[in-house]
Every structure is written in structure tokens, then in C-alpha cells.
Amino acid sequence: MAQLTDDVFAFAGGLMPIEQALALVAARIPPIDRIEAVPLRAADGRVLAADLFAPVDLPAFDNSAVDGWAVAHADLTPGAATILPVAGRLAAGHGAGHVAAAGTVTRIFTGAPMPAGCDTVFMQEDVAVLDDGRVSLPPGLKKGANARPRGEDIATGTLALPAGRRLDPRDLALAAALGVATLEVRARTRVAVFSTGDEILEPGTPLAPASLYDSNRFSLMALVARAGCAVTDLGILKDDPTETAERLIAAAADHDLVVTSGGVSTGEEDHVRATLAGHGSLVFWRLAIKPGRPVAMGLIDGTPLVGLPGNPVAVFVTWAHVLRPLLAALAGTAVAPIRTRTVTAAFAYAKKAGRREYVRVSLATRDGVTVAEKYPIDGAGVVTSLTRTDGLVELGEDVTAVAPGDPVTFMDHRDLV
Questions:
Q1: Which CA distances in Å does 279 have to 6, 28, 301, 332?
Q2: What pLDDT is attached to residue 13?
């Protein structure tokens, strides 16, 4: 379990700039220290715990890149066709150590070992087979053409995959090609997820007066699982300070991270922040971001706890810009950068300076220009503003107004999940 000290973070003031919070997370949160060996078939999406160096050359021997004819380039007639007899035939998986006689060609197939003495391969479609069995090789082919030398891909002892890399199918292909059957990876980050509030009900139960179905917990569990974590669903915390404290403390004891939604504002029934203040340490809360300002991060017995806002849109925004980088730090890898593109605003918007805001938009094309159209309802509790839009427009701290026609920075929802 990642263990943090109470003085990991230090910030005095009101709203913490999000970049400062992220810099602290990246610099100070150590990755979990549990490491396990997994077979290649189970390594996709896992984080490599140690550098992998090539144990063999790849390829392990000189071989042909095409079906064709292997020859010593020195036997070719410069500027004219060369006619040579055929000395043999080599298929993939056969003929290792075969030595070609000088002044001959060898019929060879893709992946077959190059005969000793040969250094060039003519593609079969470029070669004419004569009636007497000899072949005519056209002029102009460079020495070494269509031949793959030993170690061309990667040489023995060369760094193949660095520690901290989140493995994907390309990496597994390289490891397999090097003959590596298992990889040392960091254990999955164990994340406990709660929702909070007396008004929150489990989907599928009768909807009581003044109640809402829990949506945040399900989106968070899916997002955290997509990040490669092991998720524990700990249900809904009612608005009881004693129960909240007991359950959060218990969750922190056997998880690497505890995540809640709701309960981190200043209301009398917001008990998550109070639990941190009374039973752990509150290291920051209230970020200069909208939606999502009331984000609390603290420690309970060295285990980080993140309290996200209660509104679904704020949960999504703070997931993308706060929780996602934190999970990367715990996993010992770099957070994947969010791809952005510049589009043209098709809306007017005013905001306060000093905080970063995210506006839900859909993209459209007008006169060949990609424009961002703002969702008509602003509320952070409007779930359809996420399902009926394409992404977010990010407005920096120094922006106070957007006018139609202004260039703005767009982030696709698909890159945030």
C-alpha cells in the first residue's frame, strides 16, 4: 500500500490552482510497492515494474524478408543481368547453417535463414527462371536488399521496454518475440468507491420522495476499472458522522485509495471532509476549477482519500483532471496526456478570472469550419449534458469571456475515459 506522510502537501490559501495540485500529486505520491509476475496473456494494461532488456537478438539470425532468390552481391554483373545456377531451396524453419556455393543462387522463402555467403535477396517476381533451370537476375539491386540481419530489430542487452510503461498489445508482441513468457508488473491499485448522502438510492429500488438514484458510483467504478485498477464497491454512505468515519477508516486499511462522491462541501451533512479533519489529515480541498471546486484530498493512516463533488458532471471533470493523474501516480506510470484540438466557439460565455472552467459542447461543421456548440443547460447535475455532447471546451484561468468566432481548446469525451 502506498503510504504518505501528513506533510506531503502544503498549501495555504483559498482555491488551489489545479496545476499545483497535480504537480504535488506527480512529485510526491509513491507508486504502490506490490509487484507480481504475470503471463503475457494477462499483462495487457498492466504497468511494467522493471526495465525489460532484450535477452536475445531480434531477429536471432540473418533471414529473408521476402520470397525470392538469395545471392552474394559480389557475384552479380554490374549493369547487366546475371545468370546463375540454383544451388538449393530454403523454407522458414529449415536450412540453418546452409552454405551457398560461390556463383550460385538459392531459392528462399520469407523468414528462412540466409545461406552463409549470401547477403542479398531478389524478389521472386523480379527474377526469370530459364528453360535450363538457371535464373536471370536483373541489374540494379543494392547489396543487402530484402535481407534482415541478426539483431536488426533489437540487439541482446538493449532496453526493450522501460519500467513504468503501461503495456499494450504492441508491447506484448515485442516481449513474446523476445521469448519472454512472464513480465514483472505492479499489482493493480486497490480502489474503494463510495457514494454519500441520505437522498441517494440504489438503482433498481423504489424511488422514494426527495431521493435520487446513485449514478456517480457506477460511473466512477467504470472509469477506475478502465484505468486498470481493482475496484471494490462499498455502496452508499448515509449522512451519519460516526458511520462515515468507521467505514472510511476500514476501507483505508486494506485499499490503496478511497474515492467518494459528495460529502466534501461545507454543509452540516457533509461528513467526508469532517472525517479527514478529525481522523486523518485534510491536505487540500477546493480547487480553482468549475465544475468541481469542492474536491478534497486527505490521508487516513497514510492511505490517500479523494472526495469528489456530488454532481455527476463535476465528478466527470474532476475524474479527468484530478483522479486520473492520481491513479497514474499510484500505478507508477505517467498519466496519458489529454489530446486537444482548436475549434471555433459558436457560443458566448462569461466567467470569472482565476479559475479554469469546462464547458460541455457538441461539434458541428459550418462552412467547412469545426465549431463548438454549447449545451443549453449549464447545471453540473445534468447527466444528459455528458451523453449528448462530444466533449469539453477548456477555458483557462485568464479567460473572462468567449465570443462566437473565438478559437477555443476542445477535449473529446472519448479521450477522458
A1: 12, 22, 9, 28
A2: 52
CA-CA-CA-CA torsion sign (93, 97, 98, 103): positive
Is the pLDDT reported for residue 23 higher than 60?
yes
Nearest Cα to 85, choosing from 66, 105, 107?
105
Q: What pLDDT sits at residue 266?
A: 52
Q: What percent of the chain has pLDDT over 90?
A: 76
Q: Which residues on adjacent β-strands are paired with residue 28? A: none
Longest CA span, the chain: 98
* 3-state per-residue secondary structure call for 93-159: CCCCCCECCCCCEEEECCCCECCECCCEEEEHHHCEECCCCCEEECCCCCCCCCEECCCCCECCCCE
> Alpha-carbon distance 380 to 385, whole Å?
9
pLDDT above 50 (res 354):
yes
Distance CA 228, CA 249 (A): 24
Confidence check: pLDDT of 168 > 60: yes
Give 280's pLDDT tier (boundaries 50, 70, 90). confident
Radius of gyration (Cα) for the chain, nearest Å? Answer: 31
Q: Which of 251, 413, 417, 215 is nearest to 327 (CA)?
A: 417
Q: Which residues contact 345 (CB under 8 A, 6 or more apart)?
A: 371, 372, 393, 402, 403, 404, 405, 406, 407, 408
The distance of Cα 106 from the centroid of its chain, to the nearest Å, equals 47
Helix, strand, coil proportions of the chain in percent (round to 5)? 20, 30, 45
User: What residue has cell string 538493449?
Assistant: 158
Question: Buried (b) or exposed (e) across 119-128, using 16+ Cβ within 10 A?
Answer: bbbbeeeebe
- The answer to whether the beta carbons of residues 166 and 228 sit under 8 Å apart is yes
CB 137 within 8 A of CB 105: yes
Average pLDDT over residues 121-135: 96
Average pLDDT over residues 65-84: 96
